[in-house]
């Protein structure tokens, strides 16, 4: 049986494209349960958020990370690599959400233990469906280890 | 009386004649580094007279960068090691240099070096051209992969923005838009989506090169069966009957062979006529390899379009009639040509089409 959440689901969205941020937030708005979406605009900001450093001393620990690949300064693969090396962060589910269909990017993401790789569709309804499916699966269906 | 090689005087004359006739440059030099005797080929090749060549040590004619190597080789020769294939550059009368390849042997009793040199300038130059061409090819392949990445990501993103936000406007402001406004948005969204298919198809075309694998022994019957499985749904929907002869083993990139069958069968299913679809796949032995054919009873093609349909994004039907960007046969052509084969068709409007392609027996495929 699927449990409804008694608390807010924390999602960290890492994307440099403001348009995608708006679209993803739009899609998450329609979800059945309460999401709180935080935004990081590149890899450095994402790691600051996760480690509660820099601009984010009071950041919540996300239940799910949606990570773009192509970003300035530090790209998604580099962020993923650091997350997986960090004892405190390595168990957080990371979904790569990108427009890249490059075989190399897909392979590299899974090698770095991305939980899954999803290509952003051009169609708005598709995008909404996909983002909601990701959200639902990782926050409701998937059984994850308890954070200590 | 004519002298024959039998007696010693005649022998000398025969050798002398051949010495002067030789296309290669023959010479005898002393251990001090001077030519003692040279044949006519020297003058013909380099332009210097015999006197000019004999007046100074031969090393003076070598390219400054080759001089040290040449002297080292002469020392090795005088130490008793024959020169088998030594290469250096020699100065010509006009100031240019020619590449010579040497074979030499030292006669210690006489204190002489016997040597033959061959002008290999042309070979050297074509080797150089080949190296330059190979480097250029590698560079253009790199550019192609880079293009593929740009197409797979950088070009998609702005298009996605255009299409998605127009749809968002349509959704959120539906009440303030009139029918015409909604139509305008639909045109714009369709345009963006079509452009996205075009980019994806260009990418597919470039992958024929960038994802190419070397040719291997491939059971074309097995590849064909796999393609049939993939097309199951389309075959069931159209109620098509597809038959095939026994298909041979060929030297091919199996993924690309599958793509070839898939595109040709896909077209046969798509461009169907009013009758139930019948498709026949055959393979015939030809002297240079196998000739495959895919025949259908579809709408056929006018002969004037036989060339055009293999071009990139060439279509013969309005998009509203039959969907598609017109990349399928361009991909087929690229795959067949990469395998060293040929693709063509026979067809008449209303009487179906037969597409033929050949896969030659042995053709080492250039890797990606």
Structure description:
The complex is a heterodimer of chains A (148) and B (368). With 148 residues, chain A is an alpha/beta fold. Chain A is built from five helices and five strands; from the N terminus they run E-H-E-H-E-H-E-H-E-H. Chain A has a five-stranded parallel sheet with strand order 2-1-3-4-5, with helices on both faces. Chain B has a five-stranded antiparallel sheet with strand order 2-1-5-4-3, sandwiched between helices. In chain B, strands 7-9-10-12-11 form a five-stranded mixed sheet. In chain B, strands 6-8 form a two-stranded antiparallel sheet. Chains A and B meet through helix 1 and helix 5 of A and helix 5, helix 6 and helix 7 of B.
Report how far the terminal alpha carbons of chain A are from each other. Answer: 25 Å
Main-sheet strand order of chain A equals 2-1-3-4-5
* Regions with little confidence, pLDDT below 50 for 5+ residues of chain A: none
Multimeric status of the protein:
heterodimer
- Specify the structural class of chain A: alpha/beta
Instruction: Quote the beta fraction of chain B.
Output: 15-25%
Order of helix and strand elements from N to C terminus of chain B: HEEHHHEEEHHHEHHEEHEEHEE
Low-confidence stretches of chain B: 1-5
The whole-number mean of residue pLDDT values of chain B reads: 88
Radius of gyration of chain B: 35 Å
Largest sheet of chain A, in brief, is: 5 strands, parallel
Question: Approximately what portion of the residues of chain A adopt beta-strand conformation?
Answer: 15-25%
Q: What sort of overall outline of chain A do the alpha carbons produce when their principal axes are compared?
A: globular
Q: So how many helices of chain B?
A: 11
Order of helices and strands of chain A: EHEHEHEHEH
Name the shape of chain B in a single word.
elongated
Lateral arrangement of strands in the main beta sheet of chain B: 2-1-5-4-3
């Amino acid at each position: 049986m699927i449990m409804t959440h008694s608390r807010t689901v924390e999602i960290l969205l890492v994307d440099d494209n403001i348009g995608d941020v708006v679209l993803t937030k739009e899609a998450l708005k329609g979800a059945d349960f309460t999401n709180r979406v935080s935004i990081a605009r590149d890899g450095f900001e994402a790691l600051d958020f996760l480690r509660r450093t820099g601009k984010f001393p009071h950041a919540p620990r996300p239940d799910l990370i949606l990570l773009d690949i192509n970003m300035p300064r530090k790209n998604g693969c580099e962020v993923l690599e650091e997350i997986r090396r960090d004892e405190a962060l390595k168990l957080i589910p990371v979904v790569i959400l990108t427009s890249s269909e490059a075989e190399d990017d897909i392979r590299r993401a899974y090698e770095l233990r991305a939980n899954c790789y999803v290509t952003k569709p051009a169609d708005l309804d598709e995008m909404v469906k996909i983002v909601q499916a990701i959200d639902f699966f990782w926050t409701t269906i998937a059984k994850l280890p308890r954070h200590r | 009386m004519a002298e024959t090689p039998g007696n010693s005087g005649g022998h000398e004359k025969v050798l002398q004649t051949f010495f002067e006739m030789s296309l290669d440059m023959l010479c005898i030099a002393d251990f001090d580094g001077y030519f003692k005797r040279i044949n006519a080929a020297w003058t013909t090749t380099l332009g210097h007279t015999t006197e000019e060549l004999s007046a100074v040590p031969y090393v003076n004619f070598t390219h400054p960068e080759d001089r040290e190597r040449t002297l080292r080789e002469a020392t090795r020769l005088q130490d008793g090691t024959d020169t088998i294939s030594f290469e250096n550059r020699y100065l010509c009368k006009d100031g240019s240099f020619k590449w010579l390849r040497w074979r030499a042997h030292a006669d210690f009793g006489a204190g002489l070096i016997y040597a033959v040199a061959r002008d290999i300038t042309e070979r050297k130059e074509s080797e150089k051209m080949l190296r330059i061409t190979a480097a250029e090819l590698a560079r253009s392949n790199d550019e192609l992969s880079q293009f593929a990445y740009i197409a797979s990501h950088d070009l998609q993103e702005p298009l996605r923005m255009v299409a998605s936000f127009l749809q968002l406007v349509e959704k959120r402001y539906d009440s303030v838009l009139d029918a015409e406004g909604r139509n305008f948005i639909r045109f714009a969204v369709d345009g963006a989506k079509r452009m996205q298919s075009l980019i994806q198809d260009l990418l597919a075309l470039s992958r024929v090169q960038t994802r190419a694998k070397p040719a291997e022994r491939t059971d074309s019957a097995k590849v064909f069966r796999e393609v049939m499985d993939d097309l199951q749904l389309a075959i069931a929907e159209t109620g098509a009957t597809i038959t095939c002869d026994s298909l041979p083993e060929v030297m091919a990139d199996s993924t690309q062979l599958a793509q070839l069958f898939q595109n040709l069968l896909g077209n046969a299913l798509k461009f169907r006529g009013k009758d139930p679809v019948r498709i026949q796949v055959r393979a015939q032995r030809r002297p240079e390899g196998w000739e495959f054919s895919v025949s259908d009873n579809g709408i056929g093609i006018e002969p004037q379009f036989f060339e055009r349909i293999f071009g990139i994004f060439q279509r013969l039907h309005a998009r509203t009639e039959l969907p598609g960007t017109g990349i399928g046969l361009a991909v087929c052509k690229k795959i067949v040509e990469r395998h060293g084969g040929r693709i063509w068709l026979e067809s008449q409007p209303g009487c179906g089409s037969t597409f033929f392609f050949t896969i030659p027996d042995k053709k080492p495929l250039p890797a990606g």
